[in-house]
């Protein structure tokens, strides 16, 4: 089969990293390197009703699936994606509230369905066919293995009516591939919209000082330059949140993607001191005290994540989550500066809870503390920084403080024009709000 090409981009073997992408021409900051439609995608259950199930467009007047009354579409064209929805439609009617496959399982079901009907290489696989995605089967630990087994069981449970499954070996391989290569699609405020697979985009290797960034337009991934890229240079994106110090990033990358990052930032750790900044006190704390507090910071992040995801909101009301944030901030505040990333992490969580509870002033005060250090810790064109300016801008506009709101929104636009492109509807929407 003839390999398709993406103009200006080449697949190559990156020394020590395996497959990768490199530039064959010069790209300037903000330029689109390439775009890639989703091979398969799935809208997250909690966003149903606000977004089209098929193209992920946000719209007020969506039409409902007449059968399950759970999926919503922009128009008839989007509803033609019925083969994908059919996998879930009757099962959701039959199971009712007991229909609860994970997003990974839902995505895997769609991939299997697509592989059955598709013979030609799709436009998402110009440089890398779906089957060749990295799986890291040999490196999986027991916990991962058990999760995969649970996913496979759920797939059989919820999808057997409309899907013939490949054998266990192939299924194990598929789930491992989805776990290493799946993308989470987020909106401009970084709210989770769904999951998708983009084989060509998955070819890019990771760096903590990336020269490219992935954003989405509906279910199409766009890769844009966030630094000048010269011909012959490797194209890197970041797989993880870049807020944290080197040790944390390296651990996360090893756990989730099975490699040790050797980027410039991971070897020089040039930003670590600012990221772990200690409060100025009359007597500086002992190294042991600092070590203990770092350990506490890492633990509380994990504990909060579990509390947010596993606890029932009725048993664990948002006020309790907020209390957890406040207590940890008090404790860390005795040693850590307000710009320390563990402090910032918990402030960000507190802001999220305030937004959920519609405590706009509370959210604003956390956001204002976060934004400046965020701009220092993150790279120049960061979605985390842009979305924080955007949230603050929108909060101020909502509270009828237009001048300061507009100031923040303009900061958001500056970054968003580079990472999303000047013509993206997210940018157009904000311009409308400013007028
Ligand atoms: Zn649509
Ligand atoms: Zn339906
Ligand atoms: Zn790194």
From TrEMBL:
It is found in: Cytoplasm, Cytosol; Nucleus. It comes from the Eukaryota. Keywords: Chromatin regulator, Cytoplasm, Metal-binding, Methyltransferase, Nucleus, S-adenosyl-L-methionine, Transcription, Transcription regulation, Transferase, Zinc, Zinc-finger. Residues 7-240 form the SET domain. Its EC number is 2.1.1.354. Residues 52-89 form the MYND-type domain. Gene3D superfamilies: 1.10.220.160, 1.25.40.970, 6.10.140.2220, SET domain, Tetratricopeptide repeat domain. It catalyses: L-lysyl-[protein] + S-adenosyl-L-methionine = N(6)-methyl-L-lysyl-[protein] + S-adenosyl-L-homocysteine + H(+); L-lysyl(4)-[histone H3] + 3 S-adenosyl-L-methionine = N(6),N(6),N(6)-trimethyl-L-lysyl(4)-[histone H3] + 3 S-adenosyl-L-homocysteine + 3 H(+). One of its GO terms (cellular component) is cytosol. Its main location: cytoplasm. SUPFAM superfamilies: SET domain. InterPro entries: H3K4_H4K5_MeTrfase (IPR050869), SET_dom (IPR001214), SET_dom_sf (IPR046341), TPR-like_helical_dom_sf (IPR011990), Znf_MYND (IPR002893). GO terms for molecular function: histone H3K4 trimethyltransferase activity; zinc ion binding. One of its GO terms (biological process) is methylation. Protein-lysine N-methyltransferase that methylates both histones and non-histone proteins, including p53/TP53 and RB1. Specifically trimethylates histone H3 'Lys-4' (H3K4me3) in vivo. The activity requires interaction with HSP90alpha. Shows even higher methyltransferase activity on p53/TP53. Monomethylates 'Lys-370' of p53/TP53, leading to decreased DNA-binding activity and subsequent transcriptional regulation activity of p53/TP53. Monomethylates RB1 at 'Lys-860'. This is [histone H3]-lysine(4) N-trimethyltransferase. It comes from Paramormyrops kingsleyae.
């Amino acid at each position: 089969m003839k390999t398709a090409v993406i103009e200006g981009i080449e697949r190559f073997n990156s020394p020590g990293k395996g497959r990768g992408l490199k530039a064959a021409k010069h790209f300037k900051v903000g330029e689109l390197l390439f775009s890639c439609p989703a091979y398969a995608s799935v809208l997250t259950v909690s966003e149903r009703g606000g977004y089209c199930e098929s193209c992920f467009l946000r719209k007020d007047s969506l039409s409902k699936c007449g059968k399950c009354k759970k999926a919503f579409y922009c128009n008839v064209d989007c509803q033609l994606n019925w083969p994908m929805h059919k996998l879930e439609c009757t099962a959701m009617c039959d199971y009712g509230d007991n229909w609860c496959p994970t997003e990974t399982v839902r995505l895997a079901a769609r991939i299997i369905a697509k592989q059955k009907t598709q013979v030609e290489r799709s436009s998402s696989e110009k440089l890398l066919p779906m089957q060749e995605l990295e799986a890291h089967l040999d490196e999986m630990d027991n916990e991962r293995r058990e999760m995969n087994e649970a996913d496979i069981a759920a797939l059989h449970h919820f999808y057997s009516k409309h899907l013939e499954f490949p054998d266990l070996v192939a299924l194990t391989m598929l789930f491992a591939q989805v776990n290493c290569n799946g993308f989470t699609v987020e909106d401009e405020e970084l709210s989770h919209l769904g999951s998708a697979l983009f084989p060509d985009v998955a070819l890019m290797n990771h760096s903590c000082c990336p020269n490219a960034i992935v954003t989405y337009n509906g279910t199409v991934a766009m890769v844009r330059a966030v630094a000048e890229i010269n011909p012959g240079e490797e194209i890197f994106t970041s797989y993880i949140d870049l807020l944290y110090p080197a040790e944390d990033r390296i651990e996360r990358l090893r756990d989730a993607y099975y490699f040790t990052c050797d980027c410039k930032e991971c070897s020089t750790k040039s930003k670590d001191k600012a990221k772990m900044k200690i409060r100025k006190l009359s007597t500086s704390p002992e190294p042991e005290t600092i070590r203990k507090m770092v350990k506490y910071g890492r633990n509380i992040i994990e504990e909060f994540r579990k509390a947010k995801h596993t606890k029932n909101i009725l048993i664990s009301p948002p006020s309790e989550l907020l209390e957890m944030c406040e207590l940890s901030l008090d404790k860390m505040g005795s040693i850590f500066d307000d710009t320390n990333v563990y402090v910032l992490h918990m402030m960000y969580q507190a802001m999220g809870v305030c937004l959920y509870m519609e405590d706009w002033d509370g959210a604003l005060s956390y956001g204002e503390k976060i934004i400046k250090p965020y701009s220092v810790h993150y790279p120049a064109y960061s979605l985390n920084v842009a979305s924080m300016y955007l949230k603050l801008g929108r909060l101020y506009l909502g509270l009828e403080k237009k001048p300061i709101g507009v100031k923040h929104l303009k900061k958001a636009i500056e970054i968003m024009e580079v990472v999303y492109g000047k013509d993206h509807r997210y940018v157009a929407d904000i311009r409308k709000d400013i007028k």
